From TrEMBL:
Signal peptide: none
Positions of FAD binding: K45, T133, G134, S135, D296
Cofactor binding mode and count: Binds 1 FAD per subunit.
Keywords: Disulfide bond, FAD, Flavoprotein, NAD, NADP, Nucleotide-binding, Oxidoreductase, Redox-active center
Binding site for NAD(+): G170, G171, G172, P173, I174, G175, V176, E177, E193, G256
GO molecular function: flavin adenine dinucleotide binding; NAD(P)H dehydrogenase (quinone) activity; oxidoreductase activity, acting on a sulfur group of donors, NAD(P) as acceptor
Protein name: Dihydrolipoamide dehydrogenase
Amino acid sequence: MVVIGAGAGGLSVAAGAAQLGLKVVLFEKGEMGGDCLNYGCVPSKALIAAAEAAHQAHAASALGVRVGEVSIDFSKVMAHVHAAIAAIAPNDSQARFEGLGVHVVREAARFISDRIVASDSLRVRARKIIVATGSHAAVPPIPGLDTVPYLTNETLFGLTTLPERLIVLGGGPIGVELGQAFRRLGSEVVIIEANALLGREDPAAAAVVLAQLRADGIEVMTGSKATRITSGPVVEVEADGQTRTVTGSHLLVAVGRSPALSGLDLDKAGVETDRNGIITDKSLRSSNRRVYAVGDAAGRGQFTHLAGAHASLVVRRTIFALPVNADALQTPRITYCDPQLASIGLGESEARAIHGDDLRVEHFDFAENDRAIAEGDTRGFGKLVTTKKGKILGVTLVGRQAGDHIHLWSLVMSAGLKLSQITSMIAPYPTRGEIGKRLAGQWYTPALFSDRTRRLVAILKHFA
């Protein structure tokens, strides 16, 4: 087996295949661990942790705790970020994978034919080839952008001084997370988004996040299109027929990600692609029966945990010849801002477009959750979307640590559990996790306390 790319998906495939006795060659032209370890999940969450600590220190007085003046040592913040990377790196290291029996080649790979992959020093004929090359920051065709220095998530963590005024192009998860983090560390921040903030998510949930960003002092410009960029950087923005300029000290481009497929010569292998990545069937196999794709390269979503799930499916399919279905995966997604926004399945508007009136929506505010009240943080809510018969279509949670509470719904939807099974569990009190049971319980409330049920109770009470 040949694996191209040593990110989350590629490493999981390589480790599984090698430990099952296959000969595995792993090509990686960049850093072991890929984007997630070096430029994405790990460093960004370490930065967010520092920003959260600063924010909690500022906000402690609301709970009767007074602290002195809060100061930020940005060099130590970045030291923490890189220490987190260094602590996790051994898990993804070349030495570890060579210890598992994987032949690691630290060179760029390319297809020579439908089953031959080569680098500068090695040529391999393989029975199965897994493309796990991930994605990279998309760079929009804005006039002038190529003439000014700008940051992406791949260069941001090399900063040694705190930006005085950071302009963020893009109000998606990356732009929101990093924009809020830098604001809480002391930068002035402007987020410019051509459409709606966190446009993929439930609008009401995104509005909770937007309110907090503005409360933090971030200028959020939605419905605003960047039309030209000049040195400064200075961004020319059009909104509602008006033009204004935004000046900053640094510019962060966070408008999305593109699959990293250049240089692979996929055409020589007969592998078809589109703008999202390699075109795959439900088994993650490409138009070349020997070539599979996992993670961001497969164009089915850009999440580390999804790449890991893809890897598991590919190992089952290519080694054990078991049937798999990537189309059936229920993949949760989380924006790690404050408050966090987590969701799985269909949002309300998506569900209505598909199911029409055959829909029920339950809503529960964190303001009704005792733990949230005790902590003095009642921002946010949970939303459950089902059919009228109770089939779970999707869940959205927005609030403190919402990402830690979407796990229940990921299990429920993946395992096909029923709402009644959620209501029957005992949820420890007081926890924010109780909101899951409350949402499920609310679904039964109309039937449980209906006139019909009351008439039935009036009869049954005589036999109790």
